[in-house]
Amino acid sequence: MTEQHILEDIDPIETKEWVDALESVLREEGPERAQYILDRLSKEAVKSGTPMPASITTPYRNTIAPQNEKPLPGDLFMERRIRSIIRWNALAMVMKANRQDSTLGGHITSFSSAATLYDIAFNHFFRGASETQEADMVFFQGHIAPGIYARSFIEGRLTEEQMDNFRREVDGKGLSSYPHPWLMPDYWQFPTVSMGLGPLQAIYQAHVMKYQDSRELVKQGDRKVWAFLGDGECDEPESLGAIALAGREKLDNLIFVINCNLQRLDGPVRGNSKIVQELEGVFRGAGWNVVKCLWGRHWDPLFEKDEKGLLQKRMDEVCDGELQNYKANGGAYTREHFFGKYPELLEMVKDMSDDDIMNLNRGGHDPYKVYAAYAAATSHKGQPTVILAQTVKGYGMFKAAEAQNTAHQTKK
Fold first, then answer.
1. Residue 265: its pLDDT value, please?
2. Is the pTM of this model over 0.85?
3. What pLDDT was estimated at residue 83?
4. pLDDT tens digit string along 114-133?
5. How does DSSP assign 322-389, residue by residue?
6. Domain of 104?
7. Where are the alpha helices (DSSP H) in 215-253?
8. Strands 263-264 and 267-268, bridge-based pairing
9. Based on the domain organization, do 192 and 233 belong to the same domain?
């Protein structure tokens, strides 16, 4: 039996009756009841000997539906302005250092893709120490260090002299290349470079904290351990080497945030496949709660129009190399090559300009979507959570680096 034959709808009326029944259960009795019925049907199919799909991945869309998103508090426009200043300062610091000495290096585009992920966490989720519990622990991805320095600079924690001496800390007046408490003991808490060390440490840190709490040695309360890493970093054996332990021990005090900008140091992470889907399967198989934050709110009206599921089909079939290409080549290219595959999709965006299409944002750059994902992660019980946030490498740098294969090597 071919895949095409399996997917062919030989009785659309019957199919619609099943879909209507599911929608009725969701509407009248809620998602838990619907999930129970689906699980029961799956078990009955297996009992009868019917082959079931082996996939443990979900469609290529956000896990959290718009109607289920927790609303973002705060002053969005003020936060956006601050975020823009931080991104600018991070870029300027690295560029200034490399104009003085081109051998210094540094990373610009990693933080530019992750700025919203950190900004929402700093503003709304990271918690300092209080009278009732210690502070959250955060393992920062090594290559985004310039962005953390830039934030500390506008907070007054770092001086202009220190910023001017990025990667020149030998005399004590500069800033280390990456997070390292040996080099900056009053600033960094954990070393996270070489790549892969951060997530591995985070798992065992969360494990020890759970042990201390369960033995009533140290009460941890609702304290969280956050680990930020990149999709390319997940190919390091240390990154995923202990995730089964986290799932087995039900470390619901642990949150991974994976910045899926689809690019590594020298090119695509998975040019001809989908790294998000791969990671979803790996983490779900290890017992993690998986939250996908892939598409920004500008896509929501298009999803509402997608009655036949063609938009979802297109998102499921397109590979990462093409997703990168769309952002590298602009709205007209995206109209032709993404929406243009199906006439119905072209009709869907006929009233949108090329600029409108270019502004269809990725989930990791949308503060509303990121906040909703973090809110779901921090409230989830019984499992560690991984957030797969889709972003664009070099976001905001346009032709200089945005979605370019050379983005990671852009220094000045």
1. 78
2. yes
3. 96
4. 999 999 999 999 999 888 88
5. HHHHHHHH-HHHHHHHTGGGSHHHHHHTTTS-HHHHHT--BGGG-HHHHHHHHHHHHH--SS-EEEEE
6. 66-296+361-409
7. 237-240, 243-248
8. antiparallel
9. yes
